[in-house]
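Researcher: Structure prediction, please.
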Amino acid sequence: MFRKKYWVIFCSLLIISACGTAESGADENWPEDEEELTMVVPFPEGGSADRQARALTSELEEELGVPVVVDNREGGAGAVGTTSHYEGDPDDGSHFIYQSQPHFQATIFRDADYDIDDFDYIGLTHESPITIWANEDSNYETFEDLMTTIEENPGELSYSMISASWSDTSVQMLTDELQMEVTDVPYDGGAEIRTALLGGEVDFTASDIDGTLAGGGDDLHPLAMFSDEPYEHAPDIPLVNEELDDMGYDMEFPEISNARFIQVKSEFRENHPERYEELAEAVEEAANSDAFIEQGEDEHMYYTWESEEETRDRVEEAYELMSEYDYLFQ
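Model: Predicted structure follows.
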């Protein structure tokens, strides 16, 4: 009886050891054993998020030695793609997501089944401040010109926006504080809101600097930027708070920026720490590669790498800011 009992224990330990060895072996052979990896982009093809993701996957393939494909899962201002990834994709490292701020945080305010802590954040690749823009041919040469016209014509001026994004909420924050009325006109993506302004369908828009310079070029005129400091790549754009101060308003708005980052489900890191580290190292190398950075510069998008800890801090800080205006993200 004594020998039988310990024989059972011995066999159990062998099984556990074998399982651990098999898992370790699987991790050692990753990602070579994968036919391909998938980067989920929760936005349409052709937009800035899609172009950035495809440029990054090209370099990531070189680092990992396997194909990395982009899977566009558009809809719901990022909610469709993020939800499908969280609920349906495996947590083995074969799928990860090229995420966008504030769209990700906004889905949480709209009762998503996930929260910030359900993901890990490998790193941030791009950040671009939100700016108020007018058509170059319009009568609005300055931020004050636009705001004065809005004040004198309540509800008559319109702006193009994407629901639950900074393109909408930054304008609402501004006009709510100033007790002014404007009309929002919703579109599906960044290219669409800029096209609407270029085509004269709306009077102004709020969009990030890099994406707008890439998509609108010299045909759009920047009026003011939600930032505390001038933007390195467009230093002449006025700052919102300084413009308001010159107009006699005693108020201050926070810095507001779009950001893009690589995100994985937290179970991936918990269950496959070696794979996570390999993917994280590869992403960092790809994001800092000359080819990726040059591709961005060619499109007036200036990439900058931030670490996992820095990225999580930015995601949480933006979430806290958005919490003050959560009614705008519903």
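Model: Residues 10-26 have pLDDT under 50 and may be disordered.
Researcher: Thanks, that helps.
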